[in-house]
């Protein structure tokens, strides 16, 4: 057997690195941090819009939709850029593809965000599912094909 073949066999038989799924309470903490970060971004943006004469009037039926769209954009942009939100960065966690454990595509991230509504609507059961699932996946993770894991050593550290 030549050296190249031996290396290929060694790669196939090597044990995969251990995966540490991030559980319910760590993710709750990360979500609280994320809520604060999003608030700190949205409030100044809202003030700038108001100064520009584009203020959202109280009772405006489109106001909640605009806030939701801006929140979604912030979260998804963090996922695409860092594979994590600020809260997940603090707890050293990343969102990865459930099959390959590599960076998901932006389509998975958008799907994951939209799937939050599926997780939330039935009494937040899809979010609580993280506490009972063997891979710590919420329904949004299952629908998007993602898992939240502790950052593997193969991925570089991220800063906000």
Automatic annotation (TrEMBL):
<dbReference type="InterPro" id="IPR051791">
    <property type="entry name" value="Pra-immunoreactive"/>
</dbReference>
<keyword id="KW-0812">Transmembrane</keyword>
<feature type="transmembrane region" description="Helical">
    <location>
        <begin position="61"/>
        <end position="81"/>
    </location>
</feature>
<dbReference type="InterPro" id="IPR010432">
    <property type="entry name" value="RDD"/>
</dbReference>
<feature type="transmembrane region" description="Helical">
    <location>
        <begin position="113"/>
        <end position="132"/>
    </location>
</feature>
<keyword id="KW-1133">Transmembrane helix</keyword>
<keyword id="KW-1003">Cell membrane</keyword>
<keyword id="KW-0472">Membrane</keyword>
<dbReference type="GO" id="GO:0005886">
    <property type="term" value="C:plasma membrane"/>
</dbReference>
<feature type="domain" description="RDD">
    <location>
        <begin position="21"/>
        <end position="145"/>
    </location>
</feature>
<feature type="transmembrane region" description="Helical">
    <location>
        <begin position="24"/>
        <end position="49"/>
    </location>
</feature>
<dbReference type="Pfam" id="PF06271">
    <property type="entry name" value="RDD"/>
</dbReference>
<protein>
    <submittedName>
        <fullName>RDD family protein</fullName>
    </submittedName>
</protein>
